[in-house]
Write a structure and sequence with these properties.
197 residues, mainly alpha, 7 helices, 88% helix
Length: 197
């Protein structure tokens, strides 16, 4: 006849055997891990995510690396949890990239529009000064500067057309600065002529 202590002892041995069997049978969450790796690959292939969501993309990479380390250490529940986190981060990187690209596209379009208006205004200023035969204005230098500004404007427009929005924004700002300098040169020449009178 078994005593209570023997029954408890047998029951504990039974639980230990069950735990060992089930622990040995645990398998890595392969499907979840594959989904996480695929989500990361999609995010890394997305130009907008790479350009505009680098921090979130880096966190997704770290999550995938941690997921693999947990799986190698046979901590499969944690690997599965981190796989879900990696998927969410990769998808967020794509969304953040898409949103930021849209904002950059709009900002670049506005910058190009302002630049084009500035070109027209500067051209009008040059032609008005030329038509009034302003003395002291070096039109050869002004025309050379204006042609250079227009060439840079073409480069900014090309960058915008090729979706290099930051380059388009910076280029259009540079053109506006050139145009401002041209207008200032004309203004200075006119002021000096008036002073001499």
């Amino acid at each position: 006849m078994e005593t209570n202590i023997q029954k408890i002892n047998n029951f504990l041995w039974f639980l230990l055997v069950i735990a060992i069997v089930f622990g040995a049978c645990a398998k890595p969450p392969v499907e979840d891990m594959d989904n996480a790796a695929s989500a990361l690959a999609r995010a890394e292939a997305d130009q907008n995510a790479v350009a505009f969501a680098a921090n979130t993309l880096a966190r997704a990479r770290d999550a995938v690396a941690n997921m693999r380390a947990e799986a190698e250490a046979k901590r499969y529940d944690e690997a599965k949890r981190i796989a879900s986190e990696a998927i969410a981060l990769a998808e967020r990187a794509i969304q953040e990239g898409r949103s930021a690209a849209g904002r950059s596209r709009d900002e670049a379009a506005e910058a190009i529009s302002i630049m084009d208006n500035s070109i027209n205004e500067t051209n009008t200023t040059i032609e008005t000064a030329r038509g009034s035969k302003q003395k002291g204005v070096n039109f050869e230098e002004i025309d050379r500067d204006f042609m250079d500004a227009k060439a840079n404007a073409d480069r900014a427009r090309n960058a915008n057309d090729e979706k290099r929005y930051r380059e388009a924004i910076d280029g259009s700002a540079g053109v506006r600065s050139q145009l401002s300098n041209i207008t200032a040169k004309i203004g200075q020449a006119v002021t000096e002529v008036k002073r001499k009178k």
